[in-house]
Design goal:
The chain is mostly beta strands and about 190 residues long. It has one helix and ten strands; from the N terminus they run ββββββββαββ. Strands 1, 2, 3, 4, 5, 6, 7, 8, 9 and 10 form a ten-stranded mixed β-sheet that branches. Strand 9 and strand 10 form a beta hairpin. The longest helix has 17 residues, at about 105-120. The model is unreliable at about 1-10 and about 170-190 (pLDDT under 50).
Length: about 190
């Protein structure tokens, strides 16, 4: 028997999102509410990033068709789908645990691509480790839709893979479920 529809009504995977029009971050945790946050640093599971086609429609779960791997793109399923990614992030202080960041926004995709390139250039020197990525703010970008914001990231350091990210990425929910989010850390000391 398949385990289909086992989530209770209103259940979901915790996520974080970046609103490019406002340059703001939001996290949705166990209580079902989105809360505005200011991320500082987090561990990014670039070893398991997914790329592919995503279509976001208001009021519906996103339609996602993942590439076979990051070098082999899947066929575009419809005109409404755009290239995007899905990436698990971990921060007990900022996110309350493991969350998914998924987007097809050109500015956040560009920012993730830039920090992924830095990751790929140094991963061989940090085998079995993941980067701690620091969010350094957002920069306004002029594009055909007006002014939007691009987040800026830098790799702060490398750490051993947190146990919370040990689970299979294909499972229906992250290991650590985001709970009530603590206020963001306001000093420059990393939690990692």
């Amino acid at each position: 028997m398949l385990n289909i529809g086992s989530q209770s009504p209103g259940s979901y995977d915790p996520y974080v999102k970046f609103n490019g029009k406002a340059g703001r971050w939001y996290v949705k945790g166990e209580d079902g509410n989105e809360k505005e946050i200011t991320p500082t640093s987090f561990v990014a599971d670039f070893a398991n990033i997914k790329t592919g086609w995503i279509m976001f429609v208001a009021g519906q779960a996103p339609s996602k068709v993942w590439d076979e791997n990051i070098s082999t793109p899947a066929a575009k399923p419809s005109d409404g789908h755009k290239r995007g990614f899905s990436l698990r992030l971990f921060s007990p202080n900022t996110f309350g645990g493991v969350v998914e960041l998924s987007s097809s926004s050109m500015h956040i995709c560009a920012a993730i691509n830039e920090v992924y390139t830095a990751y790929a250039n140094d991963v061989q020197n940090n085998k079995g480790m993941l980067p701690v990525v620091k969010y350094t703010g957002s920069a306004p970008q002029k594009d055909p839709k007006g002014t939007n914001y691009k987040p800026n990231f830098v790799i702060e350091k490398w750490v051993a893979r947190p146990a919370e990210l040990e689970s299979e990425y294909e499972q229906s929910a992250p290991v650590a479920v985001a709970k009530a989010v603590a206020p963001p850390v306001t000093n420059s000391v990393s939690e990692f």
